[in-house]
Amino acid sequence: VGVGDRCLSVMLIKIVRSKPHEEVGDRCYEEGMYEAAKLLYSNVSNFARLASTLVHLGEYQAAVDNSRKASSTRTWKEVCFACVDGQEFRFAQLCGLHIVIHADELEELMCYYQDRGYVEELISLLEAALGLERAHMGMFTELAILYSKFKPQKMLEHLELFWSHVNIPKVLRAAEQAHLWAELVFLYDKYEEYDNAVLTMMSHPTEAWKEGQFKDIITKVANVELCYRALQFYLDYKPLLINDLLLVLSPRLDHTRTVSFFSKAGQLSLVKPYLRSVQSHNNKSVNEALNHLLTEEEDYQGLRASIDAYDNFDNISLAQRLEKHQLMEFRRIAAYLYKGNNWWAQSVELCKKDHLYKDAMQHAAESRDAELAQKLLQWFLEEGKRECFAASLFTCYDLLRPDMVLELAWRHNLVDLAMPYFIQVMREYLSKVDKLDALESLRKQEEHVTEPAPFRCGRWHL
């Protein structure tokens, strides 16, 4: 110990004997006599004042130790700020961990760091504080805001881990101001503002759009109009994925409006998988759109299957279009449609033009129109279709009058060809006559049995 120190100690002992230690220590502290104050405060175990004194002496480690013993927020703040000013950030962080757990002290601490430009050190402090048992919402929220301003690449990871611990409205504003669109969408989703999330993704697709996330959120929106805006968005940016979106949205879409939308856009062929998936609803617009596509693709088998399975469409309009088609199979479907709508004459006439003789005979037979069957029979004769004439006699058997058939066969020298028909007619007529004869005989027998015997009374016969 030097001579000066010994003199100081002797002088302090004399002063202390006459006055309380703390009073003397405070006087020394105010006069800048920090070594003397240190001795006095140590003597009376005033750890709070001792810690303040030690930071002035540059003894930061000792100051932190005594702050821990003082266990006072005010002391922690004083030592922390002194460490920051002295750029002793390791010790400042140790003190700061005891300050940030108090929500009402957090703002002052952050301002002190930021006003001096020590943002990196502040972020490190808050990151270290997240694992504390007394960590509160303010810490998570302020760290997220700092990330948005200074380390945007870390914000999304932070939100994914701690979104339930942050003040979402406050962080939303920070993310929007920082133009962090992906983070903004994430927060809107967690805050159940699904409409805003979808609008943000559609407004900033490069940064914010993710296929799985978009399909998950779009099904939860309150405004159904956003579903149709999403369809336009996909047409513009992701046309090859639009059927996946439609399958997700189909329970909420008006299928008639959806078909109209794609029809106006000229993209019906793009959404054919969607049309097939919802055709089970038997919607008129869907059926007509799909039938139109199948016609354009010249898929007559698919068109026939669609027509048979789903009947809610304008049959006559489709038939009129198909009867002018260049492929015979589609004209055949037109005849089929005419038949299904009881336009028998048009159906038979179309079959005659395309030489679909079997179909013409079947349609005439199903019509139950004797005049139509007779005209078809005459047409076969005029065209020299002898075999078709013979086939018609049996296909339309119930609709033809034997006398008319006999006349036509005789006039065209086809009696031999028509003879099987006449044999069948003769057999049928004979069966009817035999049946009538049997019925008549039975009737006569019943009358004979039931005839009453004459009544005798004496000599008189009544």
Which secondary structure elements does this structure contain, and how are they paired or packed?
Blueprint: H1 3-18, H2 21-30, H3 34-44, H4 47-56, H5 60-70, H6 73-85, H7 89-96, H8 103-115, H9 119-129, H10 137-150, H11 155-162, H12 168-177, H13 181-190, H14 194-203, H15 205-208, H16 211-218, H17 225-237, H18 242-249, H19 255-265, H20 272-278, H21 284-296, H22 300-309, H23 315-322, H24 328-340, H25 344-353, H26 357-367, H27 370-382, H28 386-395, H29 402-411, H30 415-450, E1 456-457, E2 460-461
Antiparallel strand pairs: 1-2
Helix pairs in contact: 2-3, 3-4, 4-5, 4-6, 5-6, 6-7, 7-9, 9-10, 10-11, 10-12, 11-13, 12-13, 13-14, 17-18, 18-20, 19-21, 20-21, 21-22, 23-24, 24-25, 25-26, 26-27, 26-28, 27-28, 29-30
Organism: Nomascus leucogenys (Northern white-cheeked gibbon)
GO molecular function: clathrin light chain binding
GO biological process, one term: intracellular protein transport
In a nutshell, what does this entry contain?
By secondary structure, the protein is an all-alpha fold. The chain has 30 helices and 2 strands.
Structure notes:
The chain has a two-stranded antiparallel ribbon with strand order 1-2. Helix 20 crosses helix 21 and helix 29 (about 400-410) runs antiparallel to helix 30 (about 415-450). About 75% of the residues lie in helices and about 0% in strands. It has helices at about 5-20, 20-30, 35-45, 45-55, 60-70, 75-85, 90-95, 105-115, 120-130, 135-150, 155-160, 170-175, 180-190, 195-205, 205-210, 210-220, 225-235, 240-250, 255-265, 270-280, 285-295, 300-310, 315-320, 330-340, 345-355, 355-365, 370-380, 385-395, 400-410, 415-450; strands at about 455, 460. The N and C termini lie far apart (about 175 Å). The protein has a domain at about 345-440. It is mainly alpha-helical. Strand 1 (about 455) and strand 2 form a beta hairpin. It has 30 helices and two strands.
